[in-house]
């Protein structure tokens, strides 16, 4: 009986309204009409389609209990009601729409579900209900998969920056860029602007050119990360929501009373949380826009009295404010952290520490800890960043540092963080005498013990 019903249903062109005869479900129910393939300007009406889904007839008196028992089997579609009016019966019944991918016959119910239906005196006999699906009921992936040419990658991934959705479209997706942008905006509440990156990140100011695919052209975003609020012009500064975990990890290493030098501070994702924890912070960024929003965010989070801001090149910051503050800090007991988050270039800036201080080092030192970020495409990224850091610093760091894997940025490209204590031999040596990493550490200075290495 079921086989004949299925065959007559699958090959029948006649569709009546509302409740129809009992049968099993046709496959691929959620495929939009084929004529939308290749669409470049979004026509929402073209996605409208009538499909058939399984349904159970349930007395209204036990409806809530049945819904709770069948919560894993009911239909889950954006904007689709799971309970509808039973058009052919009295008002004492409702139809509960089921997920056709999970339920195709009475035997599809789990033992617990079947037992619940029997206890509520609900028949397991399935009925079919005609359901009108529109563009609003389709998921992002379903729309884009229907529109883009078959066999090509479909992207619905984006980074959320406040009200902005930031995408990195591939070349084959560019003819559909405006449609993709509109779909992303439609399907993600709160997104009112969709942008596409049009070039690589500028390592100088850490920003990139972008074009608006859909929505308003307001680039001033407001985001909240780890309890801290930031505002900035996303088109002129660098912000990556995927670094939230790393920002938190790094800041948790800072204690009240510590000093933090943030060499490439951006809009403040390290500097401001550190200041909120009670650290003294000196934050710098070369990008004038980042510097401006850094100051704005310090005021926004009421830490402007705890953060000194600078608009300098990274080396100038190290050889200026850092150099001026270090002598007094080295004599203290609190920790000193130097954060260098410019992964494309930061390792090259480590040479700025060579001979930074010319005074004879005291015996007791609170040497600064450097947290330097870098990208690596090497098969052994940990060894690669250590070797590059050693070369720039002019001192071998192997077995004298720790390396933390931050994230995979792209295929065969990792972001790493090298953490080490600046050696006295580097900090107090002559910059002319230390240009290449030596095979062995420099000789110990008399009457002073080596500072403990960070491992």
Q: How is the main sheet built? A: 7 strands, mixed
What is the helix/strand order? HEEHEEHEHEEHEEEEHEHEHEHEEHEEH
Shape: elongated
* Main sheet strand line-up: 14-13-12-15-16-18-17
| Count of helix runs | 11
Beta-strand percentage range: 15-25%
Distance between the termini: 73 Å
The radius of gyration is 31 Å
Which secondary-structure class do the elements indicate?
Answer: alpha/beta
- The number of E-state strands comes to 18
| Helical coverage, percent range | 10-25%
Low-confidence stretches: 1-27, 433-455
Mean pLDDT: 85
What does this entry show, briefly?
The protein is of the alpha/beta class and 455 residues long. 23% of the residues lie in helices and 23% in strands.
List the helices and strands and how they pair.
Elements: H1 2-10, E1 19-20, E2 49-59, H2 63-69, E3 83-85, E4 93-97, H3 111-119, E5 127-133, H4 140-147, E6 159-161, E7 164-167, H5 177-187, E8 193-197, E9 210-215, E10 220-225, E11 228-233, H6 244-251, E12 259-262, H7 271-276, E13 280-284, H8 288-300, E14 307-310, H9 314-330, E15 336-340, E16 369-376, H10 381-393, E17 401-410, E18 413-421, H11 424-427
Parallel strand pairs: 7-8, 12-13, 12-15, 13-14, 15-16
Antiparallel strand pairs: 1-5, 2-4, 2-5, 3-4, 6-7, 8-9, 10-11, 16-18, 17-18
């Amino acid at each position: 009986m079921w086989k004949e019903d299925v065959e007559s249903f699958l090959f029948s062109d006649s569709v009546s309204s509302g409740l129809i005869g009992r049968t099993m479900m046709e496959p691929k129910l959620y495929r939009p009409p084929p004529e939308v393939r290749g669409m470049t300007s979004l026509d929402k009406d073209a996605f409208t389609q009538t499909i058939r889904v399984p349904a159970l007839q349930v007395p209204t008196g036990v409806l809530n209990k049945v819904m709770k028992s069948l919560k894993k089997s009911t239909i889950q579609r954006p904007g689709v009601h799971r309970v509808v009016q039973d058009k052919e019966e009295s008002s004492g019944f409702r139809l509960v729409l089921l997920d056709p991918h999970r339920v195709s016959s009475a035997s599809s119910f789990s033992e617990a579900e079947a037992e619940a239906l029997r206890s509520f005196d609900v028949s397991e006999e399935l009925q079919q209900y005609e359901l009108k699906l529109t563009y609003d009921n389709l998921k992002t992936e379903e729309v884009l998969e229907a529109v883009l040419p078959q066999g090509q990658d479909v992207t619905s991934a984006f980074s959320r920056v406040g009200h902005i959705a930031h995408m990195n479209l591939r070349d084959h997706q560019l003819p559909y860029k405006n449609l993709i942008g509109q779909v992303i905006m439609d399907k993600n509440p709160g997104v009112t602007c969709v942008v596409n990156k049009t070039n690589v990140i500028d390592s100088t100011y850490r920003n990139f050119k972008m074009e608006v695919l859909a929505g308003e052209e307001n680039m001033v975003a407001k985001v909240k990360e780890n309890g801290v609020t930031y505002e900035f012009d996303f088109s002129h500064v660098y912000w990556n929501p995927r670094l939230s975990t790393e920002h938190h990890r790094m800041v948790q290493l800072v204690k009240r009373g510590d000093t933090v030098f943030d060499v490439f501070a951006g809009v403040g994702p390290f500097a401001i949380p550190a200041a909120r924890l009670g650290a003294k912070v000196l934050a710098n960024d070369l990008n004038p826009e980042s510097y401006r929003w850094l100051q704005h965010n310090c005021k926004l989070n009421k830490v402007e009295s705890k953060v000194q801001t600078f608009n300098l090149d990274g080396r100038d910051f190290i050889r200026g404010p850092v150099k001026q503050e270090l002598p007094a800090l080295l004599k203290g007991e609190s920790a000193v952290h130097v954060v260098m988050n410019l992964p494309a270039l930061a390792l090259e800036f480590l040479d700025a520490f060579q001979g930074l201080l010319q005074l004879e080092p005291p015996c007791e030192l609170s040497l600064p800890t450097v947290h330097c970020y870098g990208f690596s495409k090497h098969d052994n990224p940990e060894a690669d960043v250590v070797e590059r850091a050693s070369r720039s610093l002019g001192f071998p760091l192997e077995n004298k540092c720790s390396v933390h894997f931050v994230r995979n940025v792209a295929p065969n490209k990792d972001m790493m963080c090298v953490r080490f204590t600046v050696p006295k031999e580097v900090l107090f040596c002559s910059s002319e005498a230390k240009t290449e990493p030596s095979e062995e550490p420099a000789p110990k200075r008399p009457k002073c013990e080596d500072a403990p290495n960070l491992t």
